[in-house]
Design goal:
Chain lengths: 416, 183
Amino acid sequence: MMRKRVWLVVWLLLVLAMGSEAVAQTVVKMGSLNDLTGPTSDVGKDIALGMREAVQYVNDTGGINGKPIKLFLYDYGYRVPEAITTYKRFRDFDKVVAVWGWGTGDTEALSPTVNADKMVYLSHSFSSHLTDPKKTPYNFVYGTDYSSNARAALTAWYDEVWLKDPKFKADREKGVKPRFVAFYGWPVPYASAPIKAIKDQAKLLGIEVGPDQDIPLTALDTKSQVLSAKNFGPHIVWHGNTTMSVATAIRDAHALGLGADHIVNNWGYDENLIKLAGPASERVMGAAVNAFFGEKVPLMEKVMEYAKRMNPGVPLENRLIRTVQSWVDVLMMREALVRADKAGKLNGPGVKEAFETLREWTPGLGRPPVTITPTDHRPGSLVRVYMIKDKKFNLVKEVDLKKRWPDKWEKEWLGW
Amino acid sequence: MRTGEIRRVIVLLLVTLAVAGCATMPPQVKLERVEVASYFPYAAPPARVPLVLGFVYNITNPNDFQRLTLEEMKFTVSFEAKPGEYFALNTPVVYETMHIPGGTTNQLRVTAVLDSLIVPGNLAVTSGTRVIALGLKPGDVVKEWWEKIGDFPFGIKVSEGVAIFASPSGSLLVGFEDTFKKK
């Protein structure tokens, strides 16, 4: 009888041990705000897919020192009030350790709250306003900030096209100053964030600035804006919106013979631009914060493997650089969480301190090395600028703003 | 413990491992129906009218084991604007935990809200070129969908669906898609 009981206990212990793994583990809860329905859903949906896939990869490869991430990912439709409400759910009910955020409007609106709450907030918004730790100590960005992207893209065009390309030879020889206009949604915080910086850069490079054109993120027709810009005769146009409206404007500019070149902020520059703008996308330049989907760079095989495994209903040919961005975002957060956990400080202040120890860190995936310090949350000064040729992205120039303008980088450009 | 008993323990251990590791049949996720969970009459912009839909799923555990747990589910909702032409409007994600006993089917209702002011913008940014090519106007399409939804004269598709389950043999990922039309 006694032996039978022993057998029963052994059996039960075995079964319980095998089945209770998930219960026994501590999870690291994380919140993610995403736009799956709003005016940036053209880029937001692929981001959301990539976030979930990257978290799965993290969990499959050891999590946070053995603790898996439990992700709560919600759509907020690019509506600031909904973002605030969802953040409160993350903070008060889900009890997350940190948040992955999305747009510039909501991230900047939430900034005073997350900083008061000491909640680390790593956003897909790369607004420069989020990079000065004196003002926003708990905000972090994983890509080069919009102002740096804009400065670098304009510089790359000036160096490699304006000074060298036969297209502008006649104007160069006549001593004409290059002319610049900006196309972007004026009331959109994301689109307007780097405008002051790019105009400052234009001045630095001796470029004349023309009238801004207001283009909504949802624009399907931009002919009136293109015709208005045509009166100024620009050589170069900055596009500050997301892919769909950027493609519309580039198509209309091509059809109406604007004659200018185009440079695009990172959220308007992806694989869909080539599909949507067609032949008009040739020569279009833009900043990219990491490799495009499918590029041969370290870890890309895993990105593609998880895309196929986790979202079999979405064909790989429809996936974008946005997925890769999400992986960089998740892996950067993982690095900080692992460091904070090892230090016994898996909490807001601990994760913030961990981010500020990153030095020349990269997850691969074509992301230039990231350095973040307690006095500067810009994750790097090196921006890769590409040009579309034969329907492919070709690297034109790596612009290292800190190396080229060290004083301005250190003393003038932080936070705007 | 004698040698014979040790052997029996080892055999028992192996049997337990074999039982736990034996082939698991994938759970099935099937859209039972779409319901208008709450209705507000359409009004033209700048009015903002929500359309609240309930997606009722049958989720079946075809296995004998009792410990199958739904942990997470997401899918994309598309409405039909012209015959056979669907437009993705939303991707709900839910994290409710649901235990599904072996050989049984549970039901899960996922509530999703669409917004008459947001959907036209969503159509423009995600499908603008196709909308124009089909001769559609986002505002008109939304008005029709909101006004006629009660009769379900157009198809509603769920696609890119993924449900993640915890099971004795580890995490199970099940893809699904379906279309709801009035029968």
